[in-house]
Batch of 4 targets.
Target 1
Amino acid sequence: MTNPMPKQRPHRRTALRLSAAAAVLCLTAGAGTATAAAADLGAGQARRGAVVSVTPLALLDARQATAGVRDAGFVTPPERGGVELERVVYRTVTPEGRPTTASGLVALPRDPGPRALTTVEYAHGTMAYRGEAPSVADGPDRAEAVMFAGDGFAAVAPDYLGLGVGPGTHPYLDAPSETTASTDLLIAARQVEARHGMHDDGRVLVTGFSEGGAAAMSIGRALQHGQVPGYRLTALAPVSGPYDLTGSELPAALNGRLLGPDATFYAADLVVAWNRLHSLYGSPSEAFQAPYDRTVTALFDGEHTDAQVAAALPDRPQRLFTPAFLQQLQHPTGKFAQMFRMADSVCQWAPQVPVRLYDADGDRDVAPANTLACKAQLAHEGVDAPLVDAGATDHNGSAFASYPLIRTWFDALAGH
């Protein structure tokens, strides 16, 4: 859950963009890839993970990759090598299991040598605007992929359904579809690697921030259960995820322990998205107070920026939802309760790989109690998952503090 009104940081937005010369190099290098992808279209490409198209985005040398990561706000050692970035559109499925497409970012080392690549999958945090997804925008989510690719990993960052250049709207905090979109990108990435003469070793280190922290746990479970042939879970490092909506996040949102405008943004996003999956109300006026009942659904169409959405919502959930629907949020029944149980189950399994949970004491977007609940759920399954505290920083700060530590840990696990 990325703060919809993040603090501004000095940030050279050009760091991960193409210079004129780099654009020529990138288009030349990527022309064969894009052509090959287009040639792949046809009846045989209906399978999940099949590549639909590949769009070259940038070729970065080690200096440019380092500058981009640092300018985004991460304090890390220099990148070991250059990075090639590509947007991949691939086949996946909707929450109902129907065929669709999604987009994602694949970041590869430019000169990996003959060795097989270990993969890092990064799942991003909350965003309302499709144009902020990793394969489209050059913000911190893209920088995290560059961080790992420049360190010698194959890095993949799904946009999820309905974000980036994928069709439809985003099914927010729907763990099953976040998982299928993310694991299908792994399959697509292997095809992209092959076109570059690269191959992976099958190991996947999974991480994610905020919404992506919960998604990372669900992705890891799918990998451990063998749902992605040829890939095996190697480690989990989720950061500040909403793992426990009913027991931790919603109570904190409704009793004032979280920032009111941000809590309202997240709750509105969740209710609108979940109503699209399963009808939770007959009309918006049953869930939302006037005048928001006439505007809130359209705000989450993927075309409004986070700032636009936040500005159009009230400052606390109690002013957005009707009293009756607030009761439903606190005491859900039927399909609503079932969806909460699904969301709250992402830590209710036993990873057979190292797990570290990262969060920050000063987080007022995603309550730190979520991480404690995840740790307790894993302990109940016999798993000791150390908690790495990023300190008194805020929600976004927990990512900036945690990812350099995760990079170092993943290096050690991969033998870099």
Target 2
Amino acid sequence: MGLNKLIVAGFKRSFEEKCLQLITQSYFTAIETKIIKINWDENDITSELHTNISQNPLRLKWSIITNVEQHLPKKEIIKEKGFAAKLPRIDLRLATINSSLEYVYHMEAKNLKETDSSLKRRYIDTGINNFVSHKYEDGCLLGYLLEGDLIKTIDGVNKLLKKDKRDSESLKSKINSLQGL
């Protein structure tokens, strides 16, 4: 007999909260050390955040493993020479095993600047769209704001979504319990 669905959902929710706490603490460490530069690519920033997550003692306490640039399985791909290069990749993957169940949380990252519409468009086209289409599942989209005001950047992304007639989708700024750890 399997675990009760409510218990499994509780484990999953708790794991997701731990993943978000790890990425948040990693970000605050990077800010404190002033290591991230505004000219870095998103993979550079993700690599630095991954290093901070790997060094966080909570990761070991919670039995979480992590890696960058994880291939995601694609059922409909023909496996012939070069197929792996065509597989979708997620920027950051965190996983744990609990009661013989594996929980995975994916994080896709995109650079953003308040005055750069092409970065906002990329955030939508290769970020939001990949979660909406279920190419990426069980995770979140990170936005690395390199320049500008957060609220104005969010408004800019929302204007592009509205222009695309996607009124039901929008970014919302909210304070959560993970801020200011």
Target 3
Amino acid sequence: MVVKEIQEFSEIRTRARAYLCYILSRNIPNYLPDPQLEMIVAGLKKIKKEIENFEALYILDAKGVQIIEAISKNPEYRKGKGINRSMRAYYYRAVREKRCILTDPYPSLLTNDLTVTAAYPIYDDKKKLHYVVCIDISLKDILKIAHPTSIDSLFGAFSKAAYAAFSVALLSVAFLLFFNGIQSLAIHGFAIAKLDIKEMFESTILLTLSLAIFDLVKTIFEEEVLGHRKRKESSDIHKTMIRFLGSIIIALSIEALMLVFKFALIGPEKIIYAVYLVGAVTMLLIGLSFYLKSTEGLRGEGD
């Protein structure tokens, strides 16, 4: 999932940059008395053996023109000499910041897939720019390097399948509750003279629970299956939990009210059970209030 991979990249970006810049600096010093192209190419060949998956290694001159054919394990990518890349973000960022940089994901001209580029400027002893060394790595591969278990793992695939199955099952329950609630209203009609308060309460409970479960399914499917995580992720989870608990409390409150009316008419000695249920609803309200208070700071950060 592209959205999920970009989100994961933002989380591991610092580690990915540190790793790539370390590989570059270990094999190619960026301050040399007289930078020689042959020495830099030799360093790139060493890097080629160290990094298992990459798209291309290449060198730009001080003006941003590629001066060698790209080094790659894929023969189709061994090209590009003479292309002016001075308008590419990795070139002007490396020149402007005068240090090794890592770009945001962008569509690769070689593969058309999302790629990141590490760019490493090389200066002489008078701090004059001579070359910019670049490494192109696909977004998926950089995630594997910096966070090996984040994507395409067996457990990750199993988790997605499991969450999808649970989502379908819960969605079926939500629809069953919804249809039963609608059916109950349809059977008894909407004639005011024939209104049955008990049936109305039961229909309301079914519809309320259906809405709560549907909202929970929506959150689980979007976040765990589709991977639509946002920067306000924790805030969204808190809102979902609040809505779910609120729906349950409403349903139990309606049930308690119905029992009070029922036992008041046909069995006053059993009204204590309705009181117990009212007490349980009160405890849930207190728990929800405590939850809201304890997560107030987290929700504030997400807003």
Target 4
Amino acid sequence: MRPFLTASWRYLLMLNYEVDPDVLRPLVPSGTELDTWQGRTFASMVGFRFLDTRVRGLPVPFHRNFDEVNLRFYVRHFAEDGWRRGVVFVKEIVPRLAIATVARVLYNEPYVALPMRHVVAMEGAEAGAAGQLEYAWKANGRWQHLSATTRGAPRPSEPGSEEEFITEHYWGYTAQRDGGCAEYRVEHPRWSVWQVERSQLEVDVAGMYGERFVPFLRGKPSSAFVADGSAVAVFPGARLGPDTRTPPSPETSRAA
């Protein structure tokens, strides 16, 4: 199948917060369930560069390179090939109104368009020099941001690690207006990650994401790191149909 969208996602700054699963359950699309790591449920603030964007292989004038900041959490869906691990977005911020409008109208993705700016100072970071990242957006007359300083050189995530859990989800799930769910596949190679010396999240949590997230996003993140990123391919979505198969037992599914 031909990708719907191709791009390069670079310098993904990820601040990961442990969240009460009861906060996220009302947002879980039908046909999926919350995914956990070592019994813990996470939501992540993610900022990154969206580069060389093409739709059906064609560049879109003035919409090839931009920033994105999103709040996402993690789910899984039991399909014919087993468990598929994916993400659900609470809100996605981009600086281009056309991108946000198309995503909302056609796919029911929770995009908003806001003024954005970034600092990407990663020269020498591949060799271990300190790098600096900041992704910022302006809402209600106020600039908000997430930022971090990296340390050391990037390394592949360890199998079974929190970094692997956060970065290695290759499906997206979106609740639809009629109560259904759309699923799409995201293809990219395994990413390496930089550890973070210090990080900061400056955001109006209640105004951007709702009161339910205030106790969690105002605390210290469980982890913070930067993924190097890569070329990505996003494939056309499909609705999840009724699933009559019996998923694995709880003991088996926990090991998945």
